[in-house]
Amino acid sequence: MFFVSSCFLLLMITFGSQLSFGVFFKVIANEFGFSRALVSGIISASLIIYGISSLLSGRLTDKWGAFPVVLSGLVCGSLGYLLITTARSFLELYIYYGLGIGLCVASSYAPISATISKVFPEKKEKMLSFAFLGIPFGQLFLPPFLATLIEKFGWRMTSFGLSVLLWLFSLPILFQLWKYRKLHFRIKEKRTGKFGLVFLRNPSLWMLLITGLVISAGFHFLSIHIVPYATDLGMPLSLAALTLSFSNLGSLLGTFSAWYLVKQFGHKKALIIFMCLDLIGISLLPFFKNPWSIFPLMFIFGFGFGGTSPIRTAMVPQIFGIQNVGTILGYLSLFWAIGGISGPILAGYVFDITKSYNIAFLSGGFLVVIGIAALTLLYGHSNKP
């Protein structure tokens, strides 16, 4: 369990800090005079790098193991947060955040997920759920913590603090990955045949790609824009940041319950249940104008989102086998990034044109419906673990 706990800490700091960008949003927009669509592009730049480099990090994990991949990503991430403190232009923000943090996050998800699947082949759903708890846990506590730091010390000093925290939370997993490096080479020696692009013909893969894209679009849209939306309704920044915490509290519980629902209903039905909760949370936001209604809706959305990631990740070795799981996860990360890129930018563009998020909320719900349809029609593999 120490290995899974170390994975928990890594995912908590890498994803938690990246997905807390919403608390930096209006501060950066006001200082540089950017539109919301333009500021959304900063996180989108990070996701572009994340998606592209995930293909490489997944493949390198299958080839060399997770240790060198994760270590390289941590170096990039710490430098990114450090250099952001010196940014004086739009281009510098895009380069430092996009390249540094994008490479860091890409070097954590696929390598960690692949390694857990190899270390615990019979208990991967449960162990992935426990490790993935780090993501909502980080999102639960980091946004209000960072918002407080921003109000007291400014966003630049807060970014410097993140560069230090990144290393402190990541040291345990580096020791563990070094310890388990021999397991990777034992599995690698058992491979037979060549791994080509034939897996792209598998309908179940396209189900995973489509569901990942639509879930990511809605999730990143809300992660970036829900705090500005709440402040538009009159909430102070420190209170608005708690909307992310409610979403992340729901995500924490959803992630924890994922393995149990898979055990009871199988992968397909469990994933449909969680996606329906996503649909409810995002689609009802335009119909409740009381600022306090945001909290329960974000909790519902977060609960649904939290259960989707460990289930989709556990489907990969079940469908494609254990040997090339890192490579497949790299493709899933690419489509995840495409959704994450398009969601915030389109939502920001809709707001800039209409001065409202209503159309964006409803569009996010429609995308979830598309994902549920893809899951229903394309998933042909047995849905029992």
From TrEMBL:
PANTHER family: EG:103B4.3 PROTEIN-RELATED, MONOCARBOXYLATE TRANSPORTER. Gene3D superfamilies: MFS general substrate transporter like domains. GO terms for cellular component: membrane. This is MFS transporter. InterPro entries: MFS, MFS_dom, MFS_trans_sf, Proton-linked_MCT, Tet-R_TetA/multi-R_MdtG-like. It comes from candidate division WOR-3 bacterium. The keyword Cytoplasm does not apply. Its main location: membrane.
